[in-house]
Amino acid sequence: MVVYGRNPVREALKGRRHVRRIWATRAANEDWSGPKPELVDADTLTSLCGSDAHQGICADVSAYEYVDAVGLLSQANPVIVALDEVTDPQNLGAVCRSAECAGATGVVLPERRSAEVTGAVCKASAGAVEHLKIARVRNLADFLADAKAAGCWCYGAAADAANPYDSPDFTGGVVLVLGAEGRGLRPRVAASCDELVSLPTHGRIESLNVSATAAVLLYEILQKRSGP
User: Fold this and answer.
1) Is residue 70 a contact partner of residue 145, using CB atoms and an 8 Å limit?
2) Domain check: are 8 and 117 in the same one?
3) Is pLDDT above 90 for 203?
4) 195-198 and 163-164: which strand pairing?
5) What domain range is 37 assigned to?
6) Looking at the structure, do residues 105 and 212 belong to the same domain, yes or no?
7) Ramachandran sector of residue 51 (left: φ over 0; alpha: ψ -120 to 50; beta: rest)
8) Domain finish residue from 10, 31, 61
């Protein structure tokens, strides 16, 4: 896999993956403090990355290693973000960045109809995926059933939910369930949640996108769990 951008390459060097090669333009190399890269032109980087958003540097790294979802549930009082068919790499990367910054235990993705960890996701997460545990499951509703059996409370975000986002106390194990922008949670996934919560909107737009919703709810959870 090729990751690109200053932060993603820097975090890949700090994370769990093996970095095999690094390429950079001469200009980007002047501000680079890591291992010496191979110097190439910008067009070569664009070809390697499949994107021109490389900021002059990219790296060939080992494949992303997903964790076992059971391991996430075995943690003490975990905070897990479960994404229901979020297919946009930018949204997945932004959610992962918020989850890592807020200290979440991990992120769970369905194996089908979901974005995977790609170079674009690494870039959108600013390298956060290198330090965040991400699991893939065959069936998200079944995972939520397993989470409840493990003692977690599952809270789904829904724009039309009657319960405000700050009503739960968010203690103990928590699974925050977020749906794809425009479609929201699928009915079976929503029905698998213990409670659905909504964020207030006072403007003309009906809802926040999934990454903004994740950030708000994660920090509400963090605040509740940190106490007064």
Assistant:
1) no
2) no
3) no
4) parallel
5) 2-61
6) yes
7) beta
8) 61
